[in-house]
Amino acid sequence: MSNRYQHPDRVRFGAAYYHEYQPTDRLKTDLDLMAAAKFSVIRVGESVWSTWEPENGRFDLEWLLPVLDGAHARGIGVILGTPTYAVPPWLARLYPEIAGESATGQRIPWGARQEVDYTHPAFRFHAERVSRRILARYAEHPAIIGFQVDNEPGNVLLHNHGVFQRFVDWLRAKYGDVETLNREWGLVYWSHRLSEWADLWTPDGNAQPQYDLAWRTFQAEQATAFIGWQADIAREYARPGQFVTTCIAYDRAAVDDRTLAATLDVTAGNPYYDMQDALQLPDDRSRPQDWTTRGTWALYQSADRMYSSRQEPFLVTETDAQAIGHSSINRPAYDGQWRQVAWALISRGAEAIEYWHWHTLHFGTETYWGGVLPHSGRPGRVYREIARIGAELDRAGAAVTGLTPGADVAFVYSTQSKRALEYQPSLALPNGEPDLRSYQEIVDAFYRGSFDAKLQSRVWHAAHLTARPAADVAREHPVLVAAALYITTDADLDWLLAYAEAGGHLILGPRTGYADQEARARNEQFPARLHEAAGVEYDEFSNVDDAVTVPGFGAATRWIDGLVPTTAEVLAGYDHPHFEQWAAVTTRQHGTGRITTVGTVPSPAFARALFAWATEARTDAWRPETPELTVTSAVNSGGGRLRFVHNWSWGEQTFTVPVTCTDVLDGTTVAAGEAITLGPWDVRVLLLAA
Question: E.C. number, please (predicted)?
Fold first, then answer.
């Protein structure tokens, strides 16, 4: 944890607040309503550069002062944003050369946001100037607790001439000479060998996966460098205890959340999710995921991803107040669901819950992205539901901060594999087109299986994981899933072997270890460097359009590796006249641990059965038998052990508590063996007796 960021004495709670967007002056009313709802934080200022600087060099900074004064008077802290993600019209007019290019020579039309080349010196000059003016004016204000630089970076892969020239320089620094690049990228193919650096083609017509992986890596470095540059500027003005962050949208094209978060004092993100029936358990539906998650399992995964960025608690700087999306998407939560989701995010390490946003807008693109208050500005059902959460957080206090979430299963996450499988997807959509979310689809199938088996998961970036001794990880995480870990170094694969040797149970999924760090298919038996220890090998693989039955487990979907066991035990095969010649799941002891290989994308039932088998020796009295319930655990900064019991259904449910606890939200004692009752869409937060 950065020494600039300190765990709060209660989970911060609030919303993004744009007084400047209001059609009438209602600042006092708004702040009074926030205080009544126990808000402790608002985010301001990040979207209105043209308000801060209406004309080139003419600044209007005083409009924010009443907001900060009013917030401070009510004990509400403020995260101050720098407005660099939405440039003013005058800047676009005076400096047309700062326009970003989504393809070489094709400027992004101005009129939305994030249209600029944020590496361009002219943009950087003006971005720094306005940021410094804002920071100098307000960093000392007692309401300011931290700074958000920019917002949701990495939206576009920039193709501007200067960006491309820096890419060439980046390649020169990495590879040294064109002959090395020719060899590493295999440019003998299709006569692409370079004779000098000037021969490198622009990315628009590129068909080489090695080029694309390098291009995507470089683009992420540009986004990270931009945010790091702004963060360093903000730190020049920050007082002790004021933190610097940005709001990360995790699916953005040029985002590597691990390296991006490393430039910040604390991770912050925006877990948007579908509400209403999308959260109901049990859930046997398969729905596509994108920037909003669909399904309770996917909500938890988004929280685990945010924790993974730094392996530390995080801030939720945006999430659903009402329905989030365009005017045709209107499904605000059922009563109780906001409360459930807030506590679910907190249980996985969130130390702030901020809604987007306070007041539903009366104009602009996001007119129907609902806020805490509706268009009328009158507090209604949404406000009452959210105010209930604020009161609970007030009562819970420090008992639910500084959390380390529990984990039964660990997952390896690889940004490089995600990029590579976007360029050369393994999976196909029903219409035969490539599925650009092949990486996520494979990983998600395993994560969902863990969730459906009532297990908790911890997501680890590969670079974070392999920096630790494998034996330590094996002790901390007895089960580790490496699915779709397509891009790997030899050292990465050797680390996985060491993990199993040290006593861990390694579960391999499709595509793991297939390519090296340059996205070149490995010239060896698969799974590469792991096949002898796993006791299984394969040479061929197939897409499948229809699910194939796997007796005793469920169904194989979308992909089948032709697993041939050598020394492994076969746990399951395929009920199919052709695929029956191969194993679906094998397992073999290796060292003091085990390697299990899964040769397909498992259906939800298959994945659930897999994890139930993998963890059957580890009983847990807190693991619910009722499909509507989930129980997650965490340890707080004082060592207190917590359990979060959720009922994701319309029906009343009961759960028998195995040990004596205190209900954090009402202070009552729950005796060991006592059954607690959860109403529809309900949650209980329990602190175990010492």
Answer: 3.2.1.23
